[in-house]
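User: Sequence in, structure out. Go.
Assistant: Echoing your sequence, followed by the structure tokens.
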Amino acid sequence: MPCMTGRIVRGVGGLYTVRDEEIGQEFVLRARGKLRREHKTPMVGDLVLFSAGSGEEHGWLEEILPRSSWCVRPPVANLDVLALVIAPVPQPDLLLVDRMIVFARRAGIGPLLCVNKCDVDGGALFAACEEAYARAKTPVLPLSARNGSGLDALHAQLCGKTVCFAGQSAVGKSSLLNALLGLQLPTGEVSRKTERGRHTTRHAQLLYADGFRVMDTPGFSLLGFEEGFAPEELAQAYPDFEPYAPSCRFAPCLHDREPGCAVRAAADTGEISRERWTRYVALLEELREKWRNRYD
């Protein structure tokens, strides 16, 4: 029997559920041993070749097709959009947002900043983010899963694409998915004492609706920078720096302590977000430390 083509929508306990997107049918498979020997780990979102089982017998995942992108945490593949969800509560971690934007740009994934719970603070967080990321080529959407505002704009951004929602727990990722897709995924709540979220999603899964695909993923883990990421490469993930970098006195310029740095001057005058530049310097120092210790 010739192999079929499908996409992994779930993977639990060594069993992979693959959807044939042409007919909409799902098959439960095990991975061939050759994939393990080739050090290939199937991920949710992978396009694969598979052979279907007969009767109650499972089929086989034969081959993983080339990926356009992938993410280690959460372990998903072939993403088009990384939707970073923040909210007024819990307190947003914008350093985490900037780290993930860097990751997305280096992986060829388009970043999208989703400000949920705008009904809580009257849109104040959205307004601040819209100003900070105006030149960063990162769309910012005001949303409320509770009252449904902004969902049409979100749908328009995702149409025809595969998206992964990421962010701190309790920012409303599952609530947004419920509102967007009409599902009833379990949602967490914020502890009144700590204002920290409780994880609810345990396994990544790919959901289909209205011509696009969306990943529901476990609680987000902070990514470390990959090996070989040189400090001077960091600014390449900051399109808001691009108009000013050619005017720096030195080339290359790390846009930190160098005299005559036009990027730092733009941050000082408010032409680009001073807070975002400050977070850039924090990430740069982390990269420097890792680069200094790369042979240890």
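User: And one key feature?
Assistant: The first helix runs from residue 33 to 37.
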